[in-house]
Amino acid sequence: MLIFDLHRPGQAGVRLLDPAAPTRAVDLPAHLLREALPALPEVSEPEVVRHYTRLSRENFSVDTAFYPLGSCTMKHNPKINDAVASLAGFTALHPYAPVSGCQGALELLHRLAAALTEITGLAATTLQPAAGASGEFTAMLMVRAFHAAHGERRTTVLIPDSAHGTNPASAHLAGFRIQEIASTASGRIDLAALRAAVNDDTAAMMVTNPNTLGLFESDIRAAADILHEAGALFYMDGANLNAILGKARPGDMGFDLVHLNLHKTFSTPHGGGGPGAGPVAVTAALAPFLPGPRVAWGDDGFRWATDNCSIGRVHGFAGNFGILVRAYAYIRALGAAGLTEVSEQAVLNANYLRAMIGDALPLAFEVPFLHECVLTAKGLAKRFDVTALDVAKRLIDHGIHPPTIYFPLIAPEALMVEPTETESKATLDAAATAFRAIVEEARENPALLKEAPHTTRLSHLDETRAARHPVLVEPLAPNMP
Ligand SMILES: *Cc1c(COP(=O)(O)O)cnc(C)c1O
For residues 119 and 117, what is the distance between their CA atoms, to the nearest angstrom? Predict the structure, then answer.
């Protein structure tokens, strides 16, 4: 139901002044004046509240149920972080306040950047980028500036075929040509293919680690050496950092630049497009190219400073400040030991869930994995014509958000499952039972399964028709004036 369907003339949430009463004369040009009343629904306040509350309950969120959407880290975000970010001292602070009047906020930014620099094992961090992809793009602009400052014009960025789709998009937007590197049969970087591809036109390689199969790239030091010997830079997509947090640092692995997703690992609620934050940490050699300004500590306190070769701004003011406050609160609340426990629990949960699902759905690649695993419905598709999409839709009837499907592209009929560290054993057990029940159902009643979901307002959509012939809702209901 649309809010326009609730329209009844005379209903209102506010009582406006009598339009006939004399008001201050305003000299408006005639062409700016309305000729007819706006076609707004007339609805009372309780009806509006009930309408939007009802809509919100048709939504699925981490706050309602299990959300194992691979690569997205849909975990519980401690509410204390929201409370801290809502403090008036933060929310009422004007971005143009004089430096002397916002020392606390600057100190928070400075401390957060220092913490992320330490966590990544690098030398300096920018907090400006607005999301993961924005961090990738920022990093690629720095790669370009770095080579230019060394009198070089390198045009190619190497990206493995298992990469997150944003990687090639960001490198392309920054003006680079993309060259794909094949993965080995075990789903990792193929060093021979890398050696063959690297030359003096290679600007950088972008690697997701752990990669989109949830696998740790075991040859990472060797890959770093190959790139560095050729004068190229090594970039890590660190969106999956909650698999290695406190255990391994990108800087120690030989990476020159890394972006983090605060709205995944560092506990900011996400989904629906934002806001987020994608800080980029870099080596000392790249630090002068970071976006500016950044917070520096000087004789008279914290102040803004811009490095000499800075690529300039990539975001207004300090970035998405509220997200940065949440990340800082999260890091301080957990401390080093707590952050390490995050990754231990994330990896344990993924491996436990996988073990409980058992042979019902096999792994796409039979190798040890970290915080997420890629299962395949290849066998189900072959024997019962039940695809990864069908399994995903049926999970909705079991109260579980579908995992990421058909990604990464190198795994057939892929179901990418990431339970995250904040789920209990009971939730994981129930999810494993649901997965197994669906596979059983594929055997016994594939027809019913293929019509799922059965418990939602809209059932199984015809994807092709929905994409080719979208039914766009009429903006006005028939009973409108
Ligand atoms: C989520 C994700 C991104 C993109 O992050 P956004 O904040 O959505 O732009 C990039 N790489 C990987 C591996 C991711 O999981």
Answer: 6
